[in-house]
Amino acid sequence: MSARRMSRSEMQASAASGALTPEAEAAAPFRLPPAAGAVGDSASAAALARIDAAIREINAAKILPLLGKAADALRGEDHKAAADWAIKALQQDERSGLAWHLLAIAREKAGDFRTSLQCYESALQLLPDEAEIANDLGRLAYRLDMKDAAAKLFLHYLDRYPGSEEAANNLACVLRDDNRYDDAVAVLRPVIQASPAQPLLWNTLGTVLAEQGDPSSAITFFDEALRLDPHFAKARYNRGNARLPLGQYDEALVDCEAAMAEPLAPDEASMMRLARSTILLCLGRIGEGWDAYEERLVPEFHDVTHFMIDRPKWTPESELSGRSLLLMGEQGLGDEVLFASTVPDVLEALGPQGRLAIAVEKRLVGLFQRSFPQAEIGAHATYKVDAHTIRGAPFVKDFEAIDLWAPLASPLRRFRRSVEAYPDRPSFLKADPERVAHWRGELAALGPAPKVGILWKSLKLTGARRRYFSPFEHWEPVLRTPGVRLVNLQYGDCEAEIAEARTRFGVDIWTPPGVDLKNDLDEVAALSCAVDLVTGFANATTNIAAACGAETWLISPPGVWPKLGTDRYPWYPQARVFNPEEQAWRPTMEAIAAALTERFGL
Fold first, then answer.
1. Would you say residue 556 lies in a domain?
2. What CATH number does the domain containing 561 carry?
3. H or E segment to which residue 389 belongs
4. CA 350, 354, 360, 365 torsion: positive or negative?
């Protein structure tokens, strides 16, 4: 049984009590994780049987019946009653490790992860030799993204039970998520050799290879997991995901739908339905895809963002003319830019008597205010309540004046149901013309050579995202293109790459002075429009450049759903897209270098 989700009223109460933790960064870009994580259930029949045995061994007569009633309540999935009985036991003996363990399980099952974590820690402190408590605590730490703590706890359990398939799987998943792929394989290999008929381990090994950027090899291991268990839904789903970067979209859809036909936990079913929506987009089934993409908003989705907006939800059938609409930015910074392409359509549908408010990441506020002066633009605020992400629009002072609201991607369901519905519009965002002129003057001082802005990485190069970005050394053909002046538009720490370009390739990449390329997005937009061309992988900056109408060349490997079944980005009709085969970076960079030479007549 999955943990109970918090209601909106509970979240609002948490906000009022100050229990919210502000998020330092915007929500991460949309990406579904592999279906292989920490396994086990602290309230399984076997786990509760172990607890029963432990209860029978204690001599504390006062709390013995209370502990028994707590365990019975857990069997009946009455988590509140289980917690109540455990608390009564603790009132009798606050140093009862079993009572703390039962309370931890009850609170975890009720979705109160913060309290559960504290209870598990108390139980482990009182019962340090009980490896099962360490394993339960490790699973919860993994769920809360406390990967270092989870790794230590799983290792503790594995030391106690060195042949445990569950412990090896769980530790390998943590190491995989920490990009320690060789270590993950080293943990799995001896257990697989000892138990080669366990599909769980082959599936996890496949996810390690897939996250490492080797989908072809990963498929081999998923095949073995499915040979051992043809109904293993997670392995079939993972095999479908591994087929996407190989361009095998039809096969990926078959696998995903077959996985969905198996019995699944609610969060797993939701994840697979959302994965299916992106496969539909890759296949060019755009209307179906956007309809199915609403799955990201259901409470069962593991990474759902809960919006604190107590107003009626917009649907594609809603009448907009003359009404007031609030759009809430979602996902990563680049996604907010991408999804804003429908804002001109929304404004037209609202008409002169309608009103639009848009909540976006705070770094985008100035750019959006200039681009959409008819709308009220403000920053959204994102918080954490335990493991739940919630978002609000604090700049909106009177929610009663809002007729309807929608997440920023949802209007795609109405305005972009086919490739043909993506307008041949050169831009939908507007850079500051004075700053564009300023930077053109600065660039002119560098000489007459054409100025090419480059970006080569994302700050979130974790897991399988690495396969969408080439190592910097593969940029050599572009860097060495004679007759162009390269301009650094890469945000984040990139001094090492700029130094490498200078020392290894003899190329000086000019960095605009006095600009924070991560946070000064108005300046980034102006710079993008001031250079002659921007090229790089799809990230926040390339999305801003293309949305502002700058000449943009995108590098986009297979399996990228924003291409919508085409070999281009329909969102940005002026953008040229280079489509490398699976991680064939060198030929792609050589093609870009040749295209630069042709483009500027060098």
1. yes
2. 3.40.50.2000
3. strand 388-392
4. positive
Q: How many CB atoms lie within 10 A of CB 244?
A: 24
443 CB contacts (<8 Å, ≥6 apart)? 451, 485, 487, 530, 531
Cα torsion 489, 495, 497, 499 to 10°: value is 120
- The Cα-based distances of 34 to 37, 102, 110, 430, 579 in angstroms read 8, 30, 25, 38, 24
Q: What would you report as the CA-atom Rg of the chain, rounded to the nearest whole angstrom?
A: 27
Which residue, 131, 202, 143, 197, is CA-closest to 167?
A: 131
In which domain, by residue range, is 236 found? 206-303
φ, ψ (nearest 5 deg) of residue 181: -70, -45
Look up residue 51 and give its two tokens: 């607890």
What value does the mean pLDDT take over residues 98-105?
Answer: 91
Residue 511 is given by DSSP the state P
Give strand ranges (E) for 408-505.
Answer: 451-455, 485-488
pLDDT tens digits for range 502-554: 999 999 999 999 999 999 999 999 999 999 999 999 889 999 999 999 999 99
Lowest mean pLDDT among 130-144, 281-295, 405-419: 130-144
Cα 463 → chain centroid? 11
Q: Mean pLDDT, to the nearest integer, of 407-424? A: 97
Give the 3-state secondary structure of residue 35: coil
Residue 537 shares a structural domain with residue 437: yes
**The amino acid at 117:** L
Of the three residues 275, 303, 331, the one that is the final residue of a domain is 303
Tell me phi and psi for residue 556, to 5 degrees.
-140, 100
Q: Is the pLDDT of residue 3 over 80?
A: no
Same domain, yes or no: 445 and 504: yes
What is the identity of the amino acid at 304? V
Burial degree of 441 (CB within 10 A; 0-12, 13-18, 19+): exposed
Residue 349's identity, in one-letter code, is A
Contacts for 180-187: CB closer than 8 Å, 24+ residues apart: 181/208, 181/209, 181/211, 181/212, 184/208, 187/158
**Strongest mean pLDDT among 124-128, 301-305, 596-600:** 596-600
Question: Which uninterrupted H or E stretch holds 537?
Answer: strand 533-537
Map residue 577 onto helix, strand or coil. strand
Residue 139 within a domain: no
Other CB atoms within a 10 A radius of the CB of residue 581 amount to 13
Domain assignment of residue 31, yes or no = no
Please, are residues 292 and 273 in contact by the beta-carbon 8 Å criterion? yes
The residue among 338, 225, 364, 343 whose CA lies nearest residue 575 is 338
Rounded to the nearest angstrom, the gap between the alpha carbon of residue 268 and the centroid of all alpha carbons in its chain is 15
Confidence of residue 229 (pLDDT cuts 50, 70, 90): very high
* Average pLDDT value for residue range 58-81: 86
Chain-centroid distance of CA 90 in Å reads: 40
Residue 8's pLDDT band (cuts 50, 70, 90): very low
Q: Give yes or no: residues 457 and 541 share one domain.
A: yes
Asked if 497 contacts 456 with a C-beta cutoff of 8 angstroms, the reply is yes
Contacts of 37 (CB under 8 A, 6+ apart): 142, 173
Q: Nearest to residue 465, comparing CAs of 23, 174, 30, 26?
A: 30
